[in-house]
Amino acid sequence: MSTMSNQHRITIGEIDYANAWPLFKGFERGAQGLAYEMISRVPSELNRLLSAGELDLSAISSFSYGKYCDDYVLMPDLSVGSIGRVYSILLFMKEPLEKRKPRKIAVTTTSETSINLLKIIMAMRFEIEPEYVRAEPDLKAMLKDADAALLIGDPAITASWQTEGLHVLDLGEQWNNWTGLGMTYAVVAARRSAVQKYGSELRAAYEALLTAKAHNLRDIGPLIQRACAAIGGESSYWETYFRSLQYDFGDKLQAGLSLYFKYARELDLLQHDARLTFYEGHSPQKVKE
Fold first, then answer.
1. Which of 61, 194, 226, 238 could bridge 112 with an S-S bond, Cβ 3.0-4.6 Å?
2. Which terms under GO biological process does the entry name (predicted)?
3. pTM surpassing 0.90?
């Protein structure tokens, strides 16, 4: 990490889940000479820190980008999404939907995208309007007084290994079956003010993220080993997991996210229309509408 006095220290938010490792692990290899601080938190906390101006650049919930899109720009080719099963955004139900519609669903406190994705799917696909209650991500406790529970990230993964007769819906699979599109759960966004003030530092951080992603996706072996050691499970599971996720924010993922924002607006989950605006590091304005 650089200590040059004339360089702004970029503050970067890293999602503290395995699904975001390919974007961040090894970041330091491409960040030689860059002054930065990496802050690892769950998505809901990163959402708060970026909106408060306490971070310059961060992975955040896609829904949070929608809320604050006028203040942010999206970093191209960086996201966490899926076209089909996501494996780590799961609804655990006591009974299958076709048998009994849930009246109360406990939802995790750690993200916004997944909660609102669930609300959209329930209301618009299945025509169900349950009560949603916030709860810490503990499946047994969540199901004590609820018909179903939504978990995301590493807690969802470990819970999926021991479902104990529960019925499980993968929200990425549900979205794809319904819309034919991918879903983007997290994006990497920069504050517009940071782009204007710290252009060269932000560009360097963005390039280091692209370098880290390319390196990790070329060789996912170290990520698989890390996951087995830190979280558990078999290497075959983690290989399927990392290869199923999409990190490039391609056209099908952008289209899916735009549709998600449209539906969120129709259900009044968002209070305004949300458009995708991308960072362009080489243009004078450094954003692309």
1. 61
2. menaquinone biosynthetic process
3. yes
